[in-house]
Amino acid sequence: MAPPLPFIRAGVVAALPAEGRCLTKQKLRPGSDVSLAGALRLQLSGIGPEHARRAAENLLSTGAQALISWGVAGGLAPHLEAGVLLLPQRVQYLEGEEYWVDPHWRQCLLDRLEDKLTLSSAPLHHTETVLSSPEEKARLYRHSGCVAVDMESVAVGKVANQAGVPFLVIRAIADPAQIALPATALSALNTQGRLQPLALLASLFSRPGDVLGLWQLAKHFRAARATLQTVVAQVGPTLLAP
Questions:
Q1: Cα 141 to Cα 109: distance, rounded to the nearest angstrom
Q2: What is the per-residue pLDDT across 20-58, written as a single tens digit (0 to 9) for each?
Q3: In this structure, what DSSP letter does residue 84 have?
Q4: β-pair partners for 100
Q5: Which residues form the Nucleoside phosphorylase domain (predicted)?
Q6: Distance of alpha carbon 116 from alpha carbon 112, whole angstroms
Q7: Which of 27, 49, 166, 168 could covalently link to 66 via disulfide, CB atoms 3.0 to 4.6 Å apart?
Q8: pLDDT for 56-82, tens place per residue?
Q9: Paired strand residues for 35
Q10: Coil, helix or strand at residue 116
């Protein structure tokens, strides 16, 4: 007879170690799978929907009772600045497929955070590739009406929907709509979120002008991480999971 699964209040899917470290002081590496305070479990998935799907399914197979898509997002709406908290009601594909978050769970977070942080409840859009230019972001904003974009939340929502468990998205804006992502930032990380030093140096050698863009991106990323850390400080380690 197989031993009973441990109680896991919620499984948290984050793509990058830097996002996961907003939840814990434990040492994290790409692919880490660690227990957190509050009976949560964190799985670092890597970048993209297929990695997120596998992480979400793994968390459910080990006993998670709910799923959270956690981390940073790209801004589409021009009024959203770096660090704005996203608690979207739903996430969607361009073709119309969409997944709704648990309304009661989301409202509990709103009640605790709306006077502490600048936040948005508008929908989040899925993308298969990084949107690097303001023009691409503006085009998707006009077409979809969504205020932000990421590459993992729809996959997590789909797994939660199929399993019939509560689902929530907690994200923060790391690159506002007006910001162009420097090409060096796109080439310096692999799909697991691991820094590739040689690729970084080679890219900076050929594009020295990217240094300013990287500095701006780092500043915005710090603002997003500060927001996620504030969420944990305000609502506690359970993230109010049901």
A1: 26
A2: 999 999 998 888 899 998 899 999 999 999 999 999 999
A3: -
A4: 90
A5: 42-180
A6: 8
A7: 166
A8: 999 999 999 999 999 999 999 999 999
A9: 41
A10: coil
Decide: helix, strand or coil at residue 30. coil
- pLDDT by residue (tens digit) across 142-153? 999 999 999 999
Q: By three-state DSSP, how is residue 167 classified?
A: strand
DSSP letters, 43-88, are EE--SSHHHHHHHHHHHHHTTBSSEEEEEEEEE-STTPPTT-EE--
CA distance 226 to 55: 25
pLDDT, tens digit, 9 for 90 and up, residues 80-103: 999 999 999 999 987 778 999 999
Which amino acid is located at 103 in the chain? P
From the number of C-beta atoms within 10 Å of its C-beta (0-12, 13-18, 19+), residue 29 rates as: exposed
DSSP state of 39: G
SS3 102: coil
**In residues, how long is the chain?**
242
The closest of 95, 63, 241 to 167, measured between CA atoms, is: 241
Domains of the chain, CATH where assigned: 10-235 (3.40.50.1580)
Sequence-ordered list of residues with C-beta below 8 angstroms from that of 227, at least 6 positions apart, any chain: 83, 84, 85, 117, 172
Amino acid at 185: A
Give the residue-averaged pLDDT of 100-126: 96
Q: Is 56 exposed, middle or buried (0-12, 13-18, 19+ CB in 10 A)?
A: buried
Asked if 153 contacts 126 with a C-beta cutoff of 8 angstroms, the reply is: yes
Strand partners, 187: none
Indicate the pairing of strand 119-120 with strand 33-36: unpaired
Give the C-alpha separation, 91 to 150, whole Å: 9
Q: Which helix (H) or strand (E) holds 36?
A: strand 33-36
Q: How far is CA 161 from the centre of its chain?
A: 18
